[in-house]
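INPUT
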Amino acid sequence: MFERFTKDARSAVVEAQLVARAAHSDQIDSRHVLVALAESPGPARTALSDGGVDVADLVSRARASIEAGDALDPAALAAVGIDLDEVTRRTEATFGEGALTRAGRILRGRRKHIPFTPDAKKSLELALREAIRLGSKEINGGHLLLGMTRAESPARNILSDAGADLERVRHLAEGASKPA
Amino acid sequence: MSQQALVASAAGDDPAEGLRAVRAMRELADRLETLQVERARRLGWSWQEIAESLGVSRQAVHKKHNRRI
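OUTPUT
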């Protein structure tokens, strides 16, 4: 499938890895790909901004949502009686400021490849189907956007939260993704 | 959700909450292990000594940490 990706679609997949690394995510889901698409010029970003989406707001919402899903979730730890603030305070007393964050980076950083969630894989498969439906041999960023908005996905939820008119954005993405 | 409600849900019957707590604890343990092993090595501990403290084999601890520290 990847051999059919256009340059912008390939770079979105690569950029999604960087988004995940920056947020210390241990998996890449459709939100990471959405951030990558929204941050680079291409048919997806054009469809979003022409569709009236505040792209900067969308990106910051998506990043905040990704960071809230950090594996070291304070609420989940509090649920079993662990006070992450207190653990952080004691850890930093021995290992210096930001030690737990640094350790998270060490754990993730050396990993060559961050895996895609089933949701992200499904979005990519749907992007392929969208490309076929539109008669395109190639898969571009517009198809990726169509793929992640075709069915329920974390990316589609972020778009809805950001007030995007999904029908309109999809229509514009289709227009930008028809074969030349 | 209040802390009390969260505690109730984790100790209660919602697998999603309980599993999320397990994942967070594992992540926390991994990060603390990384910091402690790094420091022990800097203080001159052998892989054998670290392994014994962690209750695992020397090979296991070496494989897990030698690449990153």
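end of record. The mean pLDDT of chain A is 91.
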